[in-house]
Amino acid sequence: MQAASRESYAAAAERLEAYARRAKPESIAGVADELLAVAELLRREPRLRRALSDPARPVEDRTELVRSLLGGKVGDASLKLVTALVDGRWSAPSELLEASERLGVEALLASADRAGDLGEVEDELFRFGQLVAGDPRLAGALGDVVAPAAQRAELARALLSGKAKPATVRLVEVALGGFGGRSFEAALTRLVELSAERRDRQVAYVTVAAPLSDEDERRLGAKLSELYGREVSVKQIVQPEILGGMSVQVGADLYDGTVLRRLTDTRNALAKR
């Protein structure tokens, strides 16, 4: 988002946080569903997106349009949040859509946070991503953008039913819809990171040939937390083909100490002689 859009989103996000501090988890989850439904409406209706983000149109007109469309169809809390978005200034109609979807996701995360489930939701999202990545047929079925999103969501619900928190299932559905214009895999990764950010943590993706013990994972997390000056959420990716060692990626920082990398470097050096 450009600066004006970021400021507009931040104002609406502050309102969401104020609401979430006093609301029950199930109420916040209901608001999340309504916000995501509004985002879907904006995705389907480009003319509406343009009308609601047009800086030449008076704020009162945009607000009245929102109320005429959504009044009686969404709850008061959701209507106030959508109105807060429309009151802002948007650099492009697409950024209003992005903000609506992001606000719905943040509401889902807030509901999980209030219920004390956010850490578990973060882990469930990551584990589901790993499950999908390890099964090419499943990855193809869920990542097939030609197939209807509802059909792919039904498959995901069948896989997660009774095994994941409701917020996790709903967030997977958001990822299947292409959250932020991303692929399913990239959307899941972003949702994991947003879950961690809400807990004031940074995600470290640790690739190993065999799973780390709980104690080794704890020590690694402590070292990374000391290095980055904040809590780090360690996510293990097991890839036997790296042979040994590990690679650690935190944001744009990559530390690759795998045996495979050292062998590759040696092979390349010998080939140059």
UniProtKB/TrEMBL annotation:
<dbReference type="Pfam" id="PF00213">
    <property type="entry name" value="OSCP"/>
</dbReference>
<keyword id="KW-0472">Membrane</keyword>
<comment type="similarity">
    <text>Belongs to the ATPase delta chain family.</text>
</comment>
<comment type="function">
    <text>This protein is part of the stalk that links CF(0) to CF(1). It either transmits conformational changes from CF(0) to CF(1) or is implicated in proton conduction.</text>
</comment>
<keyword id="KW-0066">ATP synthesis</keyword>
<keyword id="KW-0813">Transport</keyword>
<keyword id="KW-1003">Cell membrane</keyword>
<keyword id="KW-0406">Ion transport</keyword>
<comment type="function">
    <text>F(1)F(0) ATP synthase produces ATP from ADP in the presence of a proton or sodium gradient. F-type ATPases consist of two structural domains, F(1) containing the extramembraneous catalytic core and F(0) containing the membrane proton channel, linked together by a central stalk and a peripheral stalk. During catalysis, ATP synthesis in the catalytic domain of F(1) is coupled via a rotary mechanism of the central stalk subunits to proton translocation.</text>
</comment>
<dbReference type="InterPro" id="IPR000711">
    <property type="entry name" value="ATPase_OSCP/dsu"/>
</dbReference>
<keyword id="KW-0375">Hydrogen ion transport</keyword>
<keyword id="KW-0139">CF(1)</keyword>
<protein>
    <recommendedName>
        <fullName>ATP synthase subunit delta</fullName>
    </recommendedName>
</protein>
